Amino acid sequence: MSSGGGSNSNNRVCHFKLVLLGDTAVGKSCLVVRFVRDEFFEYQEPTIGAAFLTQAVVLEDSTVKFEIWDTAGQERYRSLAPMYYRGASAAIVVYDVTNAESFKGAKSWVKELQRRGDPSVIIALAGNKADLAGTRRKVDLKEAEEYARENGLLHFETSAKDAQNVKTLFVEIAKRLPKAVAPVEREAFPIVAPKASKRSCC
Amino acid sequence: MTSLQTAAAEMEKDVEFDPAAVSIIRQHWIDRQLKKRELEFTEYRTVTVFCGTYNVNAKIIADEEVQRLEEWLFPDAGELADIFAVGFQEVVDLNAVNVAMDGKSQQRAQAWQDKLDAVLNNKRREERYVLVAERHLVGILLLVFVKGVHSKKVREVYGASVGVGLMGMAGNKGGVSMRLKFYDSYLCFVCAHLAAHRENVEGRNSDFTNILQKTIFVDKALSGEADTPVTGQGDVTEETRKYFSEVLDVESTLQTGISILDHDVVFFMGDLNYRLDESVDTEECFAKLKAHDLDFLQRYDQLNMERIQGRVFSGFSESPLNFLPTYKYQPGTSSYERRPEKKLRCPAWCDRILWRAKEPEQVRCLSYRRAELGLSDHKPVAAQLLTKVRMVVKAQRQEVAAEIHRLLDKVENDQHPKVTLEVFDNSTLGSPRPLNTIDFGLVRYGVECRQALTITNVSNVAAHFRFVPKLEEETICKSWLSIQPRFGMLLPNEVGQINFKILIDLKTAKMLNTGRDLLDDILILRLENGQDFFLSVGGTYARSAFGMDLEDLASCHGPVRFLPLTAAKWSQFQSSTSTADKPHLPPTSVGGPTLSVPKELWRLVDALYRRGLTEKDLFIQPGVLTEVEGVREALDTGEELEENVSVHSLTEVLLSFLTSLASPVIPRNLLPSVEIDAQILRPWTRRFLEQLPPLNYNIFVYLVSFFREVLKYHESNRLNTEKLATICSKTLLPCNELHWGDSVEVASGPAVGKGEEHQRLQSMQVIFHYFLTTSVF
């Protein structure tokens, strides 16, 4: 035993299933590849199926291990999505800031999650391709923020290409996931002023 | 169960794969990696720890004199200590009452606590101290204060007491201890009062050993909670929990207990009661004291001698005794007790402070001295110890942990199997197809179509693949498709083949003809511990008269191939014919009044009538497969039947056409429910004909008339009435599971047993025989 025990109690790893949803070609796979491998490919083949990867996010007091399911965005496979969001603790609904249709699509994904997903699922709305927003923006940032606020979603504009907000997106989700109570918190000793009533230490 | 079976079951349990175990081992690995790299995220902070020990001989200092404690507690110069660990002995008389009852001890402990607090938090100084904890056992009292600025850095505080006095357990002698986490170091403070009397060195040694062995810090609250989840994932079985109990985490450690020596630094103070060796004469001692020859006397200090011999306080350090022995004084004076009426005692360094650090360089003694307070027959002793404590820099630690996890994630993700899929392209055009589409092209009734896909393991691990059903479905694909194999394993670089076959039989044709199903499906090919692939499988169904409903066929003048196929359009047809419970074709497709018999039937019968009546073994000999397919195709597309087609192929198509009808020519409810004998045959058959629906009547009459014609040539075609009656039974009656399945839903009818069913078929044979031989129409 090291140092009287307990020195490692805050490394606790909690596992959570996370699913990426959204219309086709909004950049779901690119976000995952950027997050997991820190890479970006200008041409990413469409996902026809559901890709599985794991990646940990180390927080101050715990570690969240994401089991990530990146799903196909094509409309043809939409009916298969419940297989992947069922039992998910978190979902990232992605749209493309240069494509207004994809934002409509994102809203319908959110609606579906709210109706059929886990009631406690944490949903993050990610407006991807933010690097193109300067010239080609079609989805108003304010409007998206307002929608996210009304629906209790996290919201970020991300860019898998220049990595903007990608890590933040996953970290913020990780922070909101319910972790088991770390033992060290319970052991915090309530220090009393000496004048207070008698107290012995155990 | 035999003992052998039990053993086998037991073994099975042992070898069971346990994901929780993997998770715990992994967690342990991460912890060890972090520990190895501790220096990368650990900073050291030097704090001053004041340790004081005072045997107060049951005296208590008056409130107006508490300032005199300052001389003991505060050094002449330098900063005030960060931690005050103050130990007292004999706060009460060690009489039997006080040993047995806590009341007086409690009261005195509180009094000393208040007085110390008053001194430490004197308004003249800015520093404020807060009490971490107080613990006492009869006369022994330990108080630990920390500077207010550190109060949030004190955690995991536990206390323990061990009595070693009378019978080894009463509290007149013993030790009280307190442990805590200060920043990220674990500190332990022990205040002890060991066995008295100059000659009793062994008693003191064994008291020390007892205190070390018996002091166990346990979290009672935690030991009560057995079922706290420990890994943050999955269900941890009791066995797994037990197996890994020592590494699980702090909870299990605190349940089993932590010992004094487990801490980074131990501060040990108290009236340890070691005297000068008996070889030193008391008068000689006084002489040496007068000459201030402390070096000489130190050499004869029993504790020093025992430590050199390695018999006690192993691993502990102490500063040189550069102060006069602290015992025994005339109370209230600075004179050793030499009054004639008192027992003459050799002065001794009873009151001592030692420390033990896991890393010895982390503690340095700034001062070791005594104070001159005259309250007791002992003088108080104090040590100021510069102690390095660990401070984990959370951000740096987080960075290191993230690096470790990144490495782990990379290894784990690389362990996922990966495969590539390639669809065999059968088309001569050889145009590349998307990898996930298996297109069968035009699919005809009764014609088997095959496609294949190669699957190549391009990873370094074995790939286990299998097709899985979609959510809330039970089968992996629709019934018109079969997959071989449905699962398999591939070693790295191994290539496998998956075969797909579509065969439209009468069951599936019915669904496809009515548009309730399409030749379109998505398969989920799962790579265990890897990704899921979606495979689109489909083709264009060539609509066929086979498997259709009689009425639909009769209302269709053109070839059936060119009728719309989708469910949506089909439902339009249904709504346009509100009375019918079966789907009918819309007026636009009809192009005229309902035909009296389906044209497909007419075309076959007509061809046979013209070419086949005299054919030997008519209706008995099977046709040629390719010709059969050709005839079907011609019927469905409206093309001419080929002239050279064998008559047997035509008869085979005719019979299969009849059996494939969505509902039989003779409905099930018209089967006889009584045995048919010669007496009732005639009236029964009349009623039977009356009850046949018009279209079915037409077809029945048409076919029977044709068969009668066939019988005229029985000499050349070798048919007879029996054979034809049997053919009628097999084709016109409910003859497949769909027909029977439909009729089972007629709940109002009486339940029909197998024997009874057979009986009905027998009767129908008689009836067909009658129709074939009698000119009733």
Instruction: Identify the CATH class of chain A.
Output: Alpha Beta
Instruction: Tell me, rounded to a whole number, the average pLDDT of chain B.
Output: 85
Q: Mind telling me which CATH architecture of chain A this is?
A: 3-Layer(aba) Sandwich
CATH topology of the largest domain in chain B, by name, is: Deoxyribonuclease I, Chain A
Shape of chain A: globular
Task: Describe, in plain words, how this protein is organized in 3D.
The complex is a heterodimer of chains A (202) and B (777). In chain A, a hairpin with a 4-residue loop joins strand 2 and strand 3 (63-71). Mean pLDDT of chain A is 86; it is low at 1-9 and 181-202. Chain A has one domain (11-187): P-loop containing nucleotide triphosphate hydrolases (Rossmann fold, 3-Layer(aba) Sandwich), CATH 3.40.50. Chain A has seven helices and six strands, in the order E-H-E-E-H-E-H-E-H-H-E-H-H. With 202 residues, chain A is α/β, with parallel strands linked by helices. Chain A has a six-stranded mixed sheet, with helices on both faces. Chain B has four domains: 19-218 and 257-392, Endonuclease/exonuclease/phosphatase (Deoxyribonuclease I, Chain A); 223-256, no CATH class; 419-541, Sandwich (Immunoglobulin-like); 596-773, Phosphatidylinositol 3-kinase, Chain A (Orthogonal Bundle), CATH 1.10.555. Chain B is built from 27 helices and 22 strands. Chain B is 36% helix and 21% strand. By secondary structure, chain B is of the alpha+beta class. In chain B, helix 25 packs across helix 27 (754-773). In chain B, the strands form five sheets. Chain B has a six-stranded mixed sheet. A five-stranded mixed sheet of chain B has the order 5-6-7-10-11, with helices on one face. In chain B, strand 21 and strand 22 (532-541) form a beta hairpin.
